[in-house]
């Protein structure tokens, strides 16, 4: 693992000698496009999420690749406030986040960053691109930066929902800077305004979580929260008898979503977070799909989301698509009802008249002449036609039969 030493209590600094209160053994200095940083190797663990950026940056610089990239860059920025091409490309290579301030960009200076009420800067993180502070989002909005950047993105990449990481998954970050104080409520209104502006400029907006903050301007969210996962891990033991799709009953058909962090990467199997992963989705998967997760996706009307950068995950992506395809048409329908028919059997109804009946039990369940298989579900169409699916360890949720009530014909599908 290659990682950055923790900053001293006196604050963050570019000075390699002052960066840590206790200089660790084996620390070396590495030059990056954002300055010199203290790094340490650990052969026992994997590389940290940001450290590889430092290596790429050093490679670009040492090999002269970055200079050639700047010379050949076709960008022509005419605004008097625009950064240079060198600054823009340097920020992109070392991993700039939209919500962070980097010293690589001339317009980003500490006076525009968020502060606590006591005047100190929040911990914005230490990145290969330079020291980071949390940008005061209201200040950026007031200065017109966000609007300008949205327009630039539209011109460069075209129309498409602009994704805001984290913003809909946290309490809005207040700012205590005396020149631009913002309360959490006021910042929430700023976030909502940003979603609205992005939707106007880019044709859509999206964010990480399904909190009500700005939800009317969002087209999709990555996930809702952790309730199912927490309940499954007994965090709510003694308090809850189950988790039910209340949010989904309100927003299904309006916002695309995955119902829980626990359902992310569901075709990868169950997740082992004993490696120290701090949240769902960051652990190691056993590659044995859990039938309960596959069925919960159907019961709660979710669409799949998988995080990957590896071609080896393509079979899992294909499997998720095959499971999702039979019910994808319901994404634009209102969810009108959800009920527990009996223990381990749940019915979800939609505005077009469709229904899904999910059976988590170990035995088949009969409903109005329809047999719902163990660890399976039945999709009932508006015309009372039925499609039956059961979980198979090899194929996941695979279709068993399709029957049309008008003709009584039944076809078995592979």
The amount of beta strand, in percent, is 15-25%
Q: What's the number of helices?
A: 10
Largest sheet: 7 strands, antiparallel
Structural class estimated from helices and strands: alpha+beta
Radius of gyration: 25 Å
Oligomer: single chain
- Bulk shape: elongated
According to DSSP, the number of beta strands is 20
Q: Strands of the largest sheet, in order across it?
A: 12-13-14-17-18-19-20
Would you mind describing this structure in some detail?
This protein is α+β, with helices and mostly antiparallel strands and 414 residues long. The chain is 24% helix and 21% strand. It has helices at 51-62, 65-72, 85-93, 137-142, 145-157, 184-202, 227-232, 246-251, 291-299, 314-324; strands at 2-4, 27-32, 35-41, 100-102, 126-127, 130-134, 162-164, 205-207, 220-221, 271-272, 284-285, 335-342, 345-350, 355-359, 365-367, 370-372, 376-380, 386-392, 396-403, 410-412. It has a seven-stranded antiparallel beta sheet. Strands 1-3-2 form a three-stranded antiparallel beta sheet, covered by helices on one side. A three-stranded antiparallel beta sheet has the order 4-6-5, with no helix packed on it. Helix 2 packs across helix 3 (85-93) and helix 5 (145-157) packs parallel to helix 6 (184-202). It is elongated, with a radius of gyration of 25 Å.
Give a short synopsis of this structure.
The chain has helices spanning 51-62, 65-72, 85-93, 137-142, 145-157, 184-202, 227-232, 246-251, 291-299, 314-324, and strands at 2-4, 27-32, 35-41, 100-102, 126-127, 130-134, 162-164, 205-207, 220-221, 271-272, 284-285, 335-342, 345-350, 355-359, 365-367, 370-372, 376-380, 386-392, 396-403, 410-412. With 414 residues, it is an alpha+beta fold.
């Amino acid at each position: 693992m290659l990682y950055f030493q923790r900053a001293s209590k006196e604050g963050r600094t570019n000075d390699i000698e002052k960066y840590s209160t206790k200089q660790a053994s084996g620390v070396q200095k590495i030059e990056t496009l954002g300055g010199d940083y203290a790094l340490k190797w650990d052969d026992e663990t994997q590389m940290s999420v940001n450290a590889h950026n430092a290596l790429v940056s050093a490679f670009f610089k040492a090999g002269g690749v970055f200079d050639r990239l700047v010379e050949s860059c076709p960008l022509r920025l005419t605004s008097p406030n625009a950064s240079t091409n060198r600054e823009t490309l340097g920020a992109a290579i070392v991993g700039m986040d939209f919500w962070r301030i980097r010293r690589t960009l001339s317009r980003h200076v500490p006076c525009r960053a968020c502060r606590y009420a006591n005047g100190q800067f929040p911990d914005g993180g230490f990145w290969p691109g330079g020291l980071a502070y949390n940008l005061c989002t209201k200040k950026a909005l007031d200065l017109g930066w966000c609007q300008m950047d949205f327009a630039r993105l539209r011109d460069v990449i075209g129309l498409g929902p602009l994704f805001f990481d984290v913003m809909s998954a946290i309490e809005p970050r207040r700012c205590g800077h005396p020149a631009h104080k913002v309360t959490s409520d006021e910042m929430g209104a700023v976030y909502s305004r940003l979603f609205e502006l992005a939707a106007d400029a880019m044709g859509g907006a999206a964010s990480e979580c399904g909190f009500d903050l700005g939800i009317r301007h969002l087209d999709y969210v990555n996930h809702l929260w952790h309730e199912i996962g927490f309940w499954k891990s007994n965090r709510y033991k003694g308090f809850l008898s189950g988790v039910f799709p209340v949010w989904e009953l309100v927003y299904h058909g309006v916002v695309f979503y995955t119902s829980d962090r626990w359902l992310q990467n569901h075709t990868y199997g169950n997740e082992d977070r004993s490696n120290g992963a701090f949240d769902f989705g960051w652990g190691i998967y056993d590659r044995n799909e859990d039938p309960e997760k596959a069925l919960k996706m159907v019961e709660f009307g979710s669409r799949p989301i998988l995080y990957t950068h590896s071609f080896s995950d393509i079979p899992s992506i294909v499997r998720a698509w095959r499971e999702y395809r039979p019910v994808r048409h319901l994404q634009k329908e209102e969810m009108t009802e959800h009920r527990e028919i009996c223990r381990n059997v749940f019915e979800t109804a939609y505005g077009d008249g469709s229904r899904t009946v999910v059976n988590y039990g170990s035995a088949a369940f009969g409903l109005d002449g329809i047999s719902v298989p163990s660890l399976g579900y039945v999709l009932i169409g508006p015309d009372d036609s039925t499609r039956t699916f059961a979980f198979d360890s090899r194929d996941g949720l695979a279709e068993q039969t399709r029957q049309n009530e008008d003709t009584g014909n039944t076809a078995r599908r592979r």
